Structures are given as structure tokens and as C-alpha cells.
Amino acid sequence: MGISEITSREPVLQAIKEFDQLGREQFLETHNFGKANKYMLEYKGRYYDSKAIIGVAYKYAVDGALPLGTKELYGGEQVKKRLESLGFKVATVAKNKTWIFQSSPDYFEIRKYLEESLAKQQEITWKVSHFADKIIKGDNVFIWQAKGKSKNAEPSGIVALCKVVSAVGNIEEDALSKTLWKPNHEQSSEDTKRVRLEIKMLASTSQILTSDYLKNAEDAKTLRNMSIIKSPQGTNFKVNHEDAALLHHLWNLSICPLETDYYKTIESQAQDNENRSLDEIEQRYEANRKNNETSSTTTTIRVFKRNQDVVDIRKRRANYQCEVLGCTNKPFKTATNKWYCEVHHIIPLSEDGLDCPENTACLCPTHHKEIHYGKNADQLKEQLQQLRDNEKEPS
Length: 395
Prior knowledge:
Layout lengths: L9 H13 L1 H7 L8 E5 L2 E4 H12 L14 H10 L3 E4 L5 E6 L6 H10 L4 E4 L12 E6 L11 E8 L10 H4 L15 E9 L6 E2 H6 L10 H4 L5 E4 L1 H14 L5 H14 L4 H11 L7 E3 L3 E3 L3 H10 L24 E4 L14 E4 L1 H9 L3 H14 L5
Parallel strand pairs: 4-6
Antiparallel strand pairs: 1-2, 1-3, 4-10, 5-8, 6-7, 7-8, 7-9, 11-12, 13-14
Helix pairs in contact: 1-2, 1-3, 11-12, 13-14
């Protein structure tokens, strides 16, 4: 007896539903579980305490059974393996903490500071008024821009992601920062503790993870209780592990990677493939493949490079048709007189999926959106994975 009795996804999904209905605090209290300190179950962009979920799932898997308790679950590894065997994704709770540092454009030209520092690849300095003994090198910091009074002010919210690259100490404010304070708002240099940050990602105005969204998003209800939302006065705010994981997920969705030279290369290769047969594209793909490794490039953000040959191979093998079983969505033709379709990586490149034809599916736009955002996303993914698994491996 034990978690080996949980042999399908349904009991876990029922436990997740109960978690959502009760809320995290009440769910954990009701079933006598503490918060996860190592593994979190990730499902549809939300995070759940893995051991509590698997314990409660047991009562749904075995008729008349009570949930398993912490004493009956001998460690996170067995829970992780069981959930993964059922097709769920389990994330490791980040050892590094996540913080939010706030600035107001009424006092300081925060956008200019971030843009110029990033362009020069310079570290920035930030005042630490609270948690000086908790913030350490390697921690993540979201930069929060408060709502300014100007009519043209950007919305309040997260505008950048940074990494802490020094200990908190008596660090002098950098030269650029000193020039960007509004009159009568300059910082005092005496006994001011600061930390150095490296800017990892910077959002454009349209990419800001806004406070309005975080307050109202149905898929991010826990975030509306963050300190920066409920009591926004201050400079430094702590973010708990669950909220941090969700913030990172939403932030990645809000950022739209764009690397001009790279996409020009992709467009050129796609045009070249128009004049090649499927056999020729497959031969070039095999000749250029390097141990199925997925490459990425780093600019202000990280974007995974996709092999255009893989895209064209999948489209032609599918005859430009959606591969979802029974798809009835009406297609349309492009300017080149080909049926429009999109190629989806079944296991995302960001989750170590391979950029190869065997890990892709040809989808209509509707099903492509549904597999990313729909309630049936998991079923669609399983169907497409089964489709690929049933195919004969290419020789």
C-alpha cells in the first residue's frame, strides 16, 4: 500500500481540484502538511506542494482510504518519480530567493537607468532598506516600477529581472544612478547599504507584467496577496517560493524574444527550402544535426534557436494539415498558396525537448493556442506524443 496505488492521473487531478477550491493554506492545514521545501508539482502554470498533492490523491485512488500522511511518505524523491511517471512536471524549489525592488519614476528615471546600464552591460546598484541580512549573491530580483503621476507614465509592474552579484554592504551609488534622481530626491550616501545587480531581462512597455494583471488574473490569484500589491510602500519586498515560481512563469510568457539577425537567417532558410524536396531537407537536417543538441543564444533575454529544416519537414510530412485527431477547424491558404499551419514542439525546448521532427507536430492555429492555454492541453499533448510514438522511427 502507498503511492504505488496511484496508477493514473485522475486522482492527482482531483487532489489539485481540491487544492484550488480550498486554497493552499487551508488545503495544507486540513491534511496536516507543511509547505514544500524541495519539489513543487507544476500544472497549467500553477504550482502545488507535491507531497501534499500525492498524499491527498491516495484517497481518490483507493476507495474508502484516508489521505496518506507525512509519516507514510518517505521523501520527496519517491513522490517526484511517481508524479513524473504519470506525466506530470515536477519543479525543484529554487534555493536562491526572489525579491522585488521598487522605484518610482516620480523620484528617479528608472527606465533610462535600466536601458542605459543594459546597453553598456554595466551592473546597477540598489538601496537595501530591509532584509539586508537575507539578500545574498545569486538571488533573483524583479524590478518593480511604481505608477508615475505623469499622463504618459508607464503602468506599474515588473519591468526587469536581475541577478544579485554582490553581498549587501556599504557600496557607493554608481555614477549613472547619481545623475538620474529628480530634484530634491537624491539619495544620501552616508551609511546607505546597497547591492549590485546584473540586468538579465528588460521589458518593453508592452511587455510589463502589470500590477493590474497580477491583481486580477484568475490563474494567479495568490499573487494579489504579495506585499508589493497589498502594501506597496517601500523599496525591498520578499517573495515566497510559490509566488516566485509563478512570477517567473508569467514573466517568461510576457517577454517576446526577438533577435533580428537570427530571424532574418531563419526567413532566408525557409525561402531556400521552398526550392528543395522533402528528401533534400531531411538529408541536410541529418547532415547538420549535432547529437540532437538544442542551441540557444543570449541577448537581453534567452531565446531558443529553432531549426527551420525541422519545421519544414514536419509540415510536409503532415501535408500541411493539423495532426490533432478529428480536427475540423477550417484552414486557409497563405500568399504562397500553401495551407497555413504551425509547428509545435511537444516537449518544449525550454524543458530540454529536442529540436527534431520526432518531437514536433503540425497544428492549426486554434489547436496550437489550445495546447498552450486550453484546459485540454494535457490531453492534446498526450495524443500528439502517442502519435509520434506510434510512428516507425526513421532509418
